Amino acid sequence: MNNIIKIGATAAGLYAATWLLDGLEFEGGFGGLLLVSVLIFGVNLFVRPIIKLLSFPVILITLGLFTLVINALMLQIVVWLSEPERLGLGLGSDGFFWSTFLGAIIIAIVRTVIENIFGD
């Protein structure tokens, strides 16, 4: 049940990010939004720990602020996987840094709020 809340919260955060930011767009319905959320959940589950382990010294030097860049990198991986020539899920971005960086922050904020409200 906890993973379903996380995926739903990620979907709400992704919807908010694509609605608020011009550089991050999503073309698809509710099912596609859930599939992209599952993809974000999977990338955060399998790829993110490896990246955090490899960048641990940089995270220490920046006092944890580099994790914001890691969040943007994870979102950029999902955008890359969602392109029409790969999975075709409808998530797109006009550039790496600002749109995915701000999108990752919005997704994290919305996800944290929803998980605190509906979490165990």
List keywords for this structure.
two-stranded antiparallel sheet; 120 residues; mainly alpha
Query: What global shape is seen?
Result: globular
Number of strands: 2
Largest pleated sheet = 2 strands, antiparallel
Total of domains: 1
> SSE order in H/E notation?
HEHHHHEH
User: Could you tell me how far the N terminus lies from the C terminus, measured between alpha carbons in angstroms?
Assistant: 9 Å
Strand content: 5-15%
Mean pLDDT, to the nearest integer, reads: 90
Structural class: mainly alpha
Our count of helices gives 6
Oligomer: single chain
What low-confidence regions span 5 or more consecutive residues with pLDDT below 50? none
Please give the order of strands in the largest beta sheet: 1-2
Radius of gyration: 14 Å
Q: Considering DSSP H and I runs of 4 or more, what fraction of the residues is helical?
A: over 70%
3D architecture notes:
The protein has one domain (2-118). The longest helix is centred in the last third of the chain and has 22 residues, at 97-118. It has helices spanning 2-20, 30-46, 48-54, 56-61, 66-81, 97-118; strands at residues 24-26, 91-93. The chain has a two-stranded antiparallel sheet. By secondary structure, it is mainly α. The model has no long low-confidence stretch (mean pLDDT 90). The chain is 72% helix and 5% strand. It is built from 6 helices and 2 strands, in the order αβααααβα. The protein is globular and about 40 Å long.
Brief digest:
With 120 residues, the chain is mainly α. It has one domain (2-118).
